[in-house]
Structure formats: C-alpha cells, structure tokens
Protein 1
Amino acid sequence: MSIIMAPSLLAADFSKLDEEIQKVESAGAEYLHLDVMDGHLVPNISFGIPVIQSLRKKSQMVFDAHLMISEPHKYIEAFAKAGADIITIHVESDSNIDETLDLIHSLGKKAGLALNPDAELSRAIPYFDKIDMLLIMSVYAGFGGQKYIMDVNDKISEARRLLGPDFDIQVDGGIYLHNLHVPVSAGANVIVAGSAVFGSEDAAQAVRDFKAVTI
Ligand code: DX5
Ligand code: ZN
C-alpha cells in the first residue's frame, strides 16, 4: 500500500523553514504537517497562524494543520485564511465538535478529528460522516521525539475496519523507518514523521526512504 507522507515541521530548524520545506517537498512529501500548540490543551507552545500564512507562499504541499488548541472553533477561519488545507481538531478540545467540523467544511477545507492515545475510538465514531481524515495519536500530543505507544495499534485496525479501505487514517508520533510497518500494517495510510525526517542528517532522503517502503 502506498502511504501519504506528512513530515512534521515541529522537528525542523525554525531558523530556516523555507529551506527545510523545500527539502521535503522536492523529495515528494505530499503533506506538510503543522503542529499548532497553545500551552493550554497541551503543555507546550509551538507556532501559529502568521507562520503558516508566511509559509503558504513557499509551498504547494497540502498544508495539514494539527490544532492542539483549546476552543479551536474561534480560530478555524483564521487558519483557513492562512492557507491550511486540512484542519484537524482534537476530540479532547472544548469546542462543539459537530459545529467546528461543519465550520471547517463551510470554508471549503477538509476536516480531521484527532484522538489522543487514551481516547477510545467510540468518541470519534459519531463524527465519522463529518470528517475527511481520522488522526490517531501514537504519542500524547504536545511534544516531538516521544516513543510510539504500541497500544494504539488495535485502535488503528478497528478504525480501518469501520471506515473501509479508502478512508484517510493518519498516525502521528514516534514513527521512524524501522517501525513504519507497525502503523501501516495496522491500517494507517497517512504517516506523520517529525524527528525521523527533520531530525535526520538528510530530510529529503528520509522522505524518499519512507516512500520507498512497501508493506
Ligand atoms: C506531537 C505532534 C507530532 C510530533 C511528531 O504533539 O503532533 O506531530 O511532531 O513528532 P515525532 O515524529 O518526532 O514523534
Ligand atoms: Zn501532529
């Protein structure tokens, strides 16, 4: 099965984002995964709307905004205007999930829903007909460089069974070339990798290596 590669910019060198993006885009990465953290829903702060808006001019990749923020409904329009193509909110966030997913679609964007490792799949099922992508976190949202939590594999398999073969199931956190087979065999097709790509010697080669793996 062929995977969609979504390098996470969180692990990039923030002093030269333009160059970093160029490396993964030229290597064929389809999505640019943008981890937005507010220090409230998750215990860390990353970057936000103005950074995404500036990067939009530099890349044709699908901008995949992973919003780890409280009250995401307040900011959806701004992220859409900044150039996000897919906007993913957390089921743990305090917005009305139905209304926020509708809002994302009303702005012509794709909607994703994310589950932290301890959130049961049943929490996402009511929204399956309103989402374009399910994000199953394989680490607790908040930091790059964590270890893949094997317990999420059953959740991935069950999601794949329920959503069918063509639905986009994204897995995020602790994925490297050596364990890529784990989420992919379980049923994931959109792979986020931060440390494994931007933390490596050669980000472009890392993307090519991920994309060359057949499982
Ligand atoms: C964690 C973020 C991830 C993270 C992945 O909160 O959502 O996207 O950057 O980083 P690695 O691949 O380093 O685990
Ligand atoms: Zn992420």
Protein 2
Amino acid sequence: MAEEKSKVDMEKIVSLCKRRGFIFPSSEIYGGLGSSWDYGPLGTELKRNIKDAWWRAVVQERDDVVGLDASIIMHPQAWIASGHVESFSDPLVECKSCHLRQRATDLVGNVCPECGGVLTEPRQFNLMFKTFMGPVEDDASVVYLRPETAQGIFVNFDNILATSRKKLPFGIAQIGKSFRNEITTGNFIFRTREFEQMELEFFVKPGTDEEWFNYWVKERFNWYFNLGIKPDNLHLRQHCDEELAHYARGCYDIEYLFPMGWAELEGIANRGDFDLAQHAKHSGRNLTYFDEESGERYVPYVIEPSAGVDRSLLAFLIDAYDEDVADGETRVVLRFHRELAPIKVAVLPLSRNEKLAPLARDVVAELRRHFVTQYDDAQSIGRRYRRQDEIGTPYCATIDFKSLEDNQVTIRDRDSLGQIRVPVKELVRTLQAKLSGEAFDAQPLWATRTSGAVEQ
Ligand code: GAP
C-alpha cells in the first residue's frame, strides 16, 4: 500500500510563511541557524491564538484545572528523579565515510542515506541541553534547559494542592518553551531543538485513571476537530506495549497527515504514579493526597495530554491551505478557523480617493477596539482581497462612494466570497456574530429587530 501523505506541498507552506511574514529562518542575515525559526507578525498572532484557544478549553472553561508558569531552569535533581539525565536519549549512528549523524530510528536501510557508507553501531545520545548556572563552569554548576514542561508541574503539585483548595480529580496546565538537543531536526517547524509545549497533568484517584484517560483522549481529539482540522487528516494511534515508555500504563498519539506522512501532534499518556513517586523519593517530601471522602491516603495517578504549539501551528497552516478560483483568477487562501485567523477583519477603502479616507479611518479605529484589524489602501481592490485571502482574514469591510451617502459598508466573506451590506453602526455587532459562528448569509440580528435602540 502506498504511504499516505498530505497533498499540500511543504515547500509552498514554507514559501508562503516567509513571503507573508508568518515564519522566518532564525538569524537569517547570518545565514540562518539550522533548526531555529522566528515567528513574524502574522505567525506571532496565529501562535497566540492557538495557545489562547488551548488555555480557554483546558483551563478557563473548566473548574477542575488551574494554570502554572514554572521556570525553564529547574533544580538538576528534578531531572535525575524524572529519569531524564539517565535515559532521555535517542540511538545515534554515524556514517564512517561522510560522518553524517542520524537518529537510528529515522533510517530506512542500514547504510548512510547520503553517501551509502557503512554506519557505526547505534549509541545512546542524551537529548538534554546542558548549561552552567552562575559564574563558575564546573560540575557543581551544571543545570539543564527543561526538555518538557511537565516536571515543573509535578514539583509544584504540593504547592498548588495547598493553595488552590482543589480536590481530586484536578489538573495543572502549563504552556512554555522546551529544549531538546535532537540528533536530527527538519520538516520546517515539525522537529526543532527549541519548541513550545501545551501540557496538562490531570491528577486522579488510582482506579479511575482508565476512565479519565479515555475522557482526555476524546477531549483533545475533538479540540483539533472543532478548530477546523479536516477529519480525514486526523487519527488516533494507540502505542503497543513495546513502544510504551517505562512509566506509561497507556498512550495514544493524535496524528496528523503531514506532507511527509502521518506524524505525532500530541501524546496522551496514563503515567500512573511514576512522577510523583519519583519526586517524593528524591526530595524526601510527602507527595501523597488525603482523600477526605474515603479516608485514604495515596499517590495520585496522572493523565497527561501533551501537545506541541509549533506542530499544531504547522498542522493548522497545512490544513487551512487551499487554492481555488475567485473572480476568474487562481487564488491561494488560508481557510483558518475564525478563532485562529491572525487578522479578523481588513478595512479596505475602494481607492485612495481622499473623500473615502475619513470614514475608512473612523471605521478602522472603531474595529481595532474589538478585533485584530488591518487597514490596506494600496493597489487594486482585487489585489488587496487576494492578499487578505492568502493570510486567512475571514472578513473584509469595504468602503465605497455609496458608503458616504448611505453610511453602509460591504462585508466580504473569505470562504463563500458572498457579500452583505451593513450599516456602519451595526458593523461591530455583525462581525462579532459572524466571528462567533453565525452563518454568513444568515439574516443579521439588527435587520430582524423592529424596535429598540438599533437604528437602521
Ligand atoms: N511530557 C511528555 C512529552 O513531552 P513528547 O511526546 O516527548 O511528550 C509532546 O512531547 C509533544 O511535544 C509532541 O507531541 C510534539 O507535539 C511536541 N514536541 C516534542 N518534541 C518536539 C520537537 N523536537 N520539536 C517540536 N515539537 C516537539
């Protein structure tokens, strides 16, 4: 069977990201730095929207999850307790001819993929980024950049339990940077050495873990789906016993169909009591929970949904990418879910005619108070629509000469290309409704009112 791949070409995504200011190679003026990427103005907005959507769904819309922002550099003992110093490694092989280093698990055959040379036996390569804390560079001052945000949560379990007055089951969520000295990186922002994670550690009573594990697998799968990822491009893959990490009692990967094939977006693991038990042992602190209902004391089990911000962003970009024909011209359009779109509305005066400018400027000033808004009066209106389509702006508000007479503007919908005419006074309310999911051709709320404060 042919290996499945997304029909979207990664080169097109990389080029669009550069051209429109989503993502640039890091330190480009110095020739770039391997696997590092910088998020430009639109990429920054998109990334914020993804993190906000996750935070809303996982923390703010629930009463059983609280947030944390722990430091990146933690006590080195934490990484000994977690097992990272000892065994957070990948098998590395080196070509004896060209000295290319590769992750053994990435190889298809058993010769060098570059020159066909003979490979060394695999040796374990630790992925922890090491540095020194303070002015002396010796063994006593070695610290690590965290390779996952999760451990910052486990070491704060007791602090949060004591201060938040939460009872089991409850979770602690965190978004932040992680660092791994990956042997091989690539596929744009898919695998890098510096990346961001969105992690939840959900603590439960042992015996209820299976039920909560299934609950979180469903919740997390639906999150991507509800933010517009096409169902055909998303699936769940259960880890087989040999693949399970030593601490895991079960694990599912949510996989996305990337241009290079199916690959992990997020992992959901049942980690049992491994982490709290390890930190209790190494710190000497009591990390048990007293269950008032049953009168028992136990180490909670933990269910961990762990997602990558950058990988999610790549998946949302690829999934949104489309090419179609609009007004007789081929257009590139990013069909982002409205919640994720970096720019929500663009204000476009029909031309640069100075008569249109005052109304257009009033409109943009009002919209900016409510939405991330762009103003564009350069080039033809067609070119400007194309520009907004290519960055995924759901709505354009166009001001024409008729607007000066009837005080109405035209809203154009990115996906259907449909247009509706709306009084300026109703523009914010109409856009709010559309951005909250109201169908584009639905009768606007203001038009259905027969009396009240709304003037037509
Ligand atoms: N705490 C569990 C944990 O870190 P993981 O499967 O190693 O689990 C979770 O990482 C997620 O973090 C992955 O599903 C992926 O989205 C993201 N991730 C991991 N390594 C990455 C890398 N080198 N570059 C970009 N994202 C990465």
